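Record 1 of the preview.
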Amino acid sequence: MSVINISQVNKKDVIEFFQTHWGTTEMVISSGIYDCSKLEGFAFINDNKKIAGLVTYVIREDECEIISLDSMEEGKGIGTLLVQAVEEYAWQHRCTVVSLITTNDNLHALKFYQKRGYYLVEILQNAVERARAVKPEIPLIGNDGIPIRDEIRLQKLSASF
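->
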């Protein structure tokens, strides 16, 4: 099992991963519209040579923004290893902050990132409604029956990487 650069993974496998787990490769959030299959990132490859986790990101000046993070085997440290790979890359490229956006219903992500030193820095009220104008298939109700309305931006400063 290992973390490798996404460029080392067959593009077809990356596209299939996103389509299987997200229904599409497209991510619509307040910072932009992204085709995750075309972004930089890292993959966690399991012993069967399959993608067991994937993280994508973009770098803008001195900020690295995580766009997507998926782990197929919860509680095994895959997500942590992928986030650490992004943080290391960001550090090497002189980024001063790593940020990400999640939705108000994603309590699992909020817990995951806060345990790894990320702070809630902004609530973007009704941001998901604006995203639905571009991507209407975004569900109205999310995890635990919580209406999906807002985006929450988290960040971690480079001194904490």
